[in-house]
Amino acid sequence: MSQRTWGGRFSEAPHRLAQEFNASWSFDQRLALVDIEGSLAHAAMLAHQGILGPEEEAQIRQGLLEVRQEILEGRFEWREALEDVHMNIETRLIERIGPVGGKLHTARSRNDQVATDLRLWLRGELSSILAELGVLRRVLVQEAGRFLEPPLILPGYTHTQRAMPVLLSHWFLAYYEMISRDAGRLQDALDRLNESPLGAAALAGTGFPIDRHLTAQTLGFTRPMRNSLDAVGSRDFALEALAALAIAQLTLSRLAEEIVLYSSFEFGFLTLPDAFSTGSSIMPQKKNADHAELIRGKAGRVLGSFVALATVLKGLPLAYNKDLQEDKEPLFDACDTYRASVKLLAAMLPGLQWHPEPMAKAAESGFSLATELADYLAEKGVPFREAHHVVGRVVRHCLEQGKELRDLSLSELQGFHPAYQADALELTRLETAIHRRRSYGGTAPEAVQEALKAAKKELV
Ligand code: ARG
């Protein structure tokens, strides 16, 4: 009991189960390095303000650096009885440098300490996730560029029914746009969390003449948080990051789903690289898209992390409550999961082997060019609604005759509407249809080329 920093008030040791239940060291040791960074800044500020003597501060700094070394070298012995990362490190500091180590916690509480640690940790984590996302965004742009000359055509779908042909490059750039917005959301969360809770102490500030601006500056925060209750009691910064991560994982999940579909025998649009697929233990013919499926499945997990923390926060009174210790595992897990998914996709996408023939065949069959024939009539002045109806009858005729649109003769077409001329037959060709979609953001090669240029510019 005596080894606990708060042991003074107590005459009985905690129950074994109570101690185990309360402890967070097994997961919050991930905060060890930022905990020490925060302590170094705090001690330096205390000395600057004359609250610690220069000699005392030097001893504390030296001691903290030694403890950091122990941690980095894996020599540090974590003790459950010391509950969490903060008390493990502080106790070790006092063991190493003696009672002066006990002065580090002057004008500070674990409440502002843990909030500071988590913000520092998340700041670093989000920055490195954003760097990984930069790699994935580059890969998407590079793949979009690879299939433009000659343009590879993919059926575009609505309701999972063939709708209109699009360029494969256009498809890649759609994910580029979505993932770039995900990056923007993570960046927003990062910008907003970068404020310092340190010095809010337990919940109400402190009577010591501390300088919160100084510690904020030392730690690279934009400013100290304005309200001490808010500083120690809020976790919306973590929740915002989780929301952004959940949305971002959902995007990856949609991309993964398309990879699963397109690599299936039924679609046959792409073959997965062997290095990114698995076999079956019983069916020798199988080549499964396990990794894409896992990315899809992990969306449930990341969204679950968001819901877990949101539920912890709902109805929680100010300021610190131990419930807040539950903020860490979902946050750590969501960051790990998303990062791993991003890295996996960036490595896998360039290895996908796309198959132009089945893609083009699927793109032009299933009447995906029917809209062209309706647009043709509309351009000749036929009201679009009427044109739509005419082409509906053309499609039904083809279905009855077992024909595709390109099999129709001009006289057959004219049987449905006299405005059809020879150039209408051109429209039933895939390339013509694609080239016509030149509107801004459309799938014509020129439009996609423009989008690609803009994306490349964003990435420099
Ligand atoms: N391990 C605790 C957490 O993660 C640190 C803060 C504890 N503060 C307290 N007053 N018990 O939230």
Automatic annotation (TrEMBL):
Molecular-function GO terms, alphabetical? argininosuccinate lyase activity
Chain ranges of the Fumarate lyase N-terminal domain:
8-304
Q: Name one Pfam family in it.
A: ASL_C2
Which UniProt keywords are given for this protein, alphabetically ordered? Amino-acid biosynthesis, Arginine biosynthesis, Cytoplasm, Lyase
**Source organism's superkingdom?**
Bacteria
Its predominant location is cytoplasm
EC number from the UniProt entry: 4.3.2.1
Pathway the protein contributes to? Amino-acid biosynthesis; L-arginine biosynthesis; L-arginine from L-ornithine and carbamoyl phosphate: step 3/3
Where it sits in the cell: the answer is: Cytoplasm
Q: Return the similarity comment.
A: Belongs to the lyase 1 family. Argininosuccinate lyase subfamily.
Entries under PANTHER family matching the protein? ARGININOSUCCINATE LYASE
What is the protein's name according to its record?
Argininosuccinate lyase
Report the source organism: Meiothermus granaticius NBRC 107808
